[in-house]
């Protein structure tokens, strides 16, 4: 795979997508197109079991949208908003686990890319900001005003969006924005460890858990319960279930095939 705005590399079951627009890795329609195309290819790549999404360099994961691309028809920026919403939906709906590896600034559209990821690992250098109201605009990729209350709750969402202050990695961990914070010197090793662990899991259960948790937020308790039983019938009859239980009894590492 070759793209203008991202780099894609593979290491066993882990694929890394690097936003390659340093130093700030600003979001543009071209970047979003590349990310969407990469996800399309990786969904069908059986060897890819987990994806790491990161920014090039150390200054930023993604420091927001490129202002030069904000203006759309009638000055409304609708094209970039629609593209951003489609990317957020793709990340949330993606059947494989996605890990955001966040170093440096993560601002505006960058938070829209990072926060919907399944696991979010931050270097202690990471800083977050959702200060749209102090630019006279609103967050418009269906994260801050649509999903964030499900991630954080009403009060924390209002604090974050209305105050619009810089959030340290440690504060982000307290809020639940990130899964863990790692000293920068240990950041690469921890991202690699977590990604390889997730890549070693059984693909069907990972997909099932993502679908059911998403359903709890978007469709409610009853839909999640139906998904749980539908997936349970399929998974408990799968080859991977037999392999996992057999490996446990035999005290060996399981080899999952996704079947």
From TrEMBL:
EC class name: lyase
Record-linked Gene3D superfamilies: 2-enoyl-CoA Hydratase, Chain A, domain 1
Keywords noted in UniProt: Lyase
Superkingdom of origin: Bacteria
GO MF annotation list: enoyl-CoA hydratase activity
GO-annotated biological processes: fatty acid beta-oxidation
EC number: 4.2.1.17
Family: Belongs to the enoyl-CoA hydratase/isomerase family.
PANTHER family: ENOYL-COA HYDRATASE, MITOCHONDRIAL, ENOYL-COA HYDRATASE-RELATED
Name recorded for this polypeptide: Putative enoyl-CoA hydratase
């Amino acid at each position: 795979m070759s793209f203008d705005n991202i780099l894609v590399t593979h290491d066993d079951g882990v694929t890394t997508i690097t936003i390659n627009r340093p130093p700030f890795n600003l979001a543009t329609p071209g970047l979003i197109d590349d990310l969407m195309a990469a996800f399309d290819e990786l969904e069908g790549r059986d060897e890819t079991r987990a994806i790491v999404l990161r920014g090039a360099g150390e200054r930023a994961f993604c420091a927001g949208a490129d202002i030069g691309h904000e203006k759309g028809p009638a000055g409304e920026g609708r094209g970039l908003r629609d593209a951003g919403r489609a990317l957020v939906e793709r990340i949330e709906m993606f059947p494989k686990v996605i890990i955001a590896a966040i170093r440096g600034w993560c601002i505006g559209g960058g938070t829209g890319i990072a926060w919907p990821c399944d696991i979010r690992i931050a270097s202690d250098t990471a800083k977050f900001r959702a200060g749209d109201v102090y630019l006279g605009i609103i967050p418009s990729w269906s994260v801050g005003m649509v999903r964030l209350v499900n991630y954080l709750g009403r009060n924390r969402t209002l604090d974050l969006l209305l105050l619009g202050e810089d959030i340290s990695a440690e504060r982000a961990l307290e809020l639940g924005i990130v899964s863990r914070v790692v000293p920068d010197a240990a950041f690469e090793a921890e991202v690699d460890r977590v990604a390889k662990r997730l890549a070693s899991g059984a693909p069907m259960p990972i997909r099932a858990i993502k679908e059911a948790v998403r359903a709890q937020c978007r469709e409610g308790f009853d839909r999640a319960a139906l998904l749980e039983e539908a997936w349970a019938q399929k998974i408990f009859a799968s080859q991977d279930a037999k392999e996992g239980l057999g490996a446990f009894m035999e005290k060996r590492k399981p080899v999952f095939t996704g079947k």
